[in-house]
Structures are given as structure tokens and as C-alpha cells.
Design goal:
alpha+beta; 9 helices; 15 strands; 20% strand; globular
Length: 346
């Protein structure tokens, strides 16, 4: 364990005293209004949730920050140098880095440390470069192990119900909008009621979550029974089994928005399935099938008179920690198996 370097937790140097700023509190969060004290290496909004109560320069060059809520976080020296928010390191307009990792001296370490309750300042050895970090940004970017932050989706239980939101509130109330986005993040699904059925309002709703991507079907795909010129089974009056849409694309949709405009027939109910829970059950009860689903690439193909899209991926893709993060299953868009031998198809 690295020992704390003594006498390195100091107040902000006197030259910082010329910076004028005001702070105001709202919703129990302190905000610093002067932009000179809020420089960060990105465009994120990082409210000052906890204040810096102390900071220590460690023997290995890392920095340990103690927070007013009683927690602490430790930052690696290379990580700190790479994330210096000054204009010489991050362009003030784009907020993108203008230095390369290969240009950094891997032996570089800070030699002086100063802090206020809302900033941490380091002076680096060698060229005496100065880096000042916003406390809100530092706390918001501590390691997940230290913060305890878990962004993993929730697995639906037997008592799971879809959370409902009113469309007008989503557009008018940022707190409701925040809760809605959090629901999408953790549950993967939400039901919005009362959305205007005219003028493509579903695009406005989707835009609350991020950039809307167009496909060969356009930004909006109309699910209408038109058997005479259908280019997908979704345009036929046939039952569609549980599936994911557009598995034929290299980047499958992260979120999809289904907007019920009018229904002139009976039936047509939607069914939704929790892929994470299903993957967990298969892994526990049929591990050999889980192995196949996560390792054997399946080809999905979407072809019509004017286009042909196809891609091969496992039905369940795993991230670097071995957790499912992408599901592709669509029985009516499966392509011919060409990547397996005769015996492997069994």
C-alpha cells in the first residue's frame, strides 16, 4: 500500500484568489456559476455534490481525495495527467484532447498539490505544468469500484410492471424526463401515454433519448398491412414471434419506439421478453446451449427488391466481463448458414 506523502494537502495558492465566483444552492446541490472554475475535459454537467475536505499526494504519484460525505477516491497520476482540462491539453471549443498518450512521459508525477472545496490543483514535475480539476467532475468520474455505481440493467422479476409516463410531462418537466431516461436505462422499456398522433411526434420523443438513426426504412417505419407490396413480414397480417428488429445491421438499435396511431382490427397485442433473464435461465439450466448461443455466429439477412443487408453475430453477445449486452434473434430474418460445416450444424 502506498504511504501518503506528508504536507501535500494545502489550500489553493494565492494566485487563485483573484478568481471571482458565486455559488448558489438548489435541490441540495451546490453549483459554481463562474466558468473559469468549472472547466472540465468534456461537456458534461457535473454538479458539486460533495466538497473536497482533504487531498493527499501518495508515494506512487497518485492522489487520494477525501470528500465531505466521508468517502474517498484515489486517482492514478497518468489518468490525472491525461485528463488535464487546461486549453493546452483539451481544446476549449471541442473539449477533445489535443495531446496523445505517446507524448506523455510515463514517469511523470505531480510534485505539488493544492485544493479548495470545489477544485484540486496539481503542479507536475519537469515542465511545471499546472492542472486544475473540478470537484464535481472528479467525484463523478471516480472508479466504479470506489463509487459503488451500478449501471447494470435490472432483470425483470415475476412482479415486474412497465412504468408509465405522460407525454406532456416528459416534454415539460425535466425531473419526469430524468426519471423516464433512468427507467429506460435500468428496465429497458417504458410506456408513454398521450403522445400526439399527428406530425411524427414519435421522433420528438425518441430525440429526448439521443440521436435518431435512419435505416433503409427511413426514420419512421409504418407498420401497415399491405400484402401487395410488402418488403417485410411486419407489413403482413401474420403473427410475428418474439424477435429483435434489425439484427441485420452492424449496429442494431439501442432503443426503439413503437407508436400506436390507429388500430382498425382486433388483436395485435404486443409481447415483450426480458432477454437478460432468459439468458440467465439458459446459462443455468442448459449451459451447452448457452455456449452455442454466445459463440456461434448466426447470419441474419434482410433483402428486398432494392437492398440486401446481412451480418453474422452470435445470438447473445458478451462484453469484456462476460455479461450479455446484445441480443439478436429474428426467425423470419435468418439467413443461410454458410459458416458451419455439415457436422457442426447438428
Amino acid at each position: 500500500m502506498a504511504q501518503a506523502h506528508p504536507l501535500q494537502s494545502n489550500p489553493v495558492p494565492s494566485q487563485s484568489e483573484d478568481l471571482s465566483f458565486t455559488m448558489h444552492a438548489s435541490d441540495d446541490i451546490v453549483h459554481v456559476s463562474d466558468s473559469s472554475l468549472r472547466d472540465t475535459p468534456d461537456f458534461g454537467v457535473w454538479p458539486l455534490v460533495s466538497r473536497i475536505s482533504g487531498a493527499t499526494l501518495n508515494d506512487d504519484g497518485g492522489v487520494t481525495v477525501r470528500w465531505s460525505n466521508g468517502s474517498q477516491s484515489t486517482y492514478h497520476r497518468i489518468w490525472l495527467r491525461d485528463n488535464c482540462p487546461c486549453p493546452a491539453c483539451h481544446h476549449p471549443v471541442t473539449r477533445e484532447s489535443v495531446i496523445t498518450m505517446s507524448s506523455l512521459d510515463m514517469s511523470l508525477r505531480p510534485v505539488e498539490l493544492f485544493h479548495a472545496d470545489d477544485t484540486l490543483t496539481l503542479v507536475w514535475g519537469g515542465d511545471r505544468h499546472i492542472s486544475t480539476y473540478d470537484a464535481g467532475w472528479l467525484e463523478g468520474n471516480m472508479s466504479e469500484k470506489e463509487s459503488g455505481l451500478d449501471l447494470s440493467p435490472r432483470v425483470w422479476g415475476e412482479e415486474f410492471t412497465i412504468t408509465r409516463y405522460g407525454a406532456d410531462q416528459l416534454f415539460q418537466d425535466r425531473h419526469v424526463r430524468g426519471a423516464y431516461l433512468e427507467t429506460l436505462l435500468y428496465d429497458g422499456i417504458a410506456l408513454v401515454e398521450g403522445l400526439d398522433t399527428s406530425g411524427g411526434k414519435v421522433v420528438d420523443l425518441a430525440s429526448l433519448s439521443g440521436f435518431v438513426r435512419a435505416t433503409t426504412f427511413g426514420k419512421i417505419f409504418h407498420v401497415i398491412n399491405r400484402p401487395e407490396d410488402a418488403n417485410t413480414n411486419a407489413n403482413l397480417a401474420v403473427r410475428l414471434p418474439l424477435h429483435t428488429d434489425l439484427p441485420t445491421r452492424e449496429y442494431a438499435p439501442g432503443l426503439q419506439f413503437l407508436h400506436a396511431l390507429v388500430n382498425e382490427t382486433t388483436g395485435g397485442e404486443n409481447m415483450f421478453c426480458d432477454g437478460l433473464r432468459l439468458a440467465r435461465v439458459i446459462k443455468e439450466e442448459a449451459p451447452e446451449h448457452y455456449e452455442a448461443l454466445t459463440t456461434i455466429a448466426c447470419t441474419f439477412q434482410n433483402r428486398d427488391r432494392y437492398s440486401d443487408h446481412r451480418v453474422s453475430f452470435p445470438i447473445i453477445r458478451l462484453d469484456h466481463l462476460g455479461r450479455p449486452f446484445d441480443f439478436r434473434i429474428n426467425t423470419f430474418l435468418r439467413g443461410a448458414i454458410t459458416n458451419l460445416s455439415y457436422d457442426e450444424i447438428d
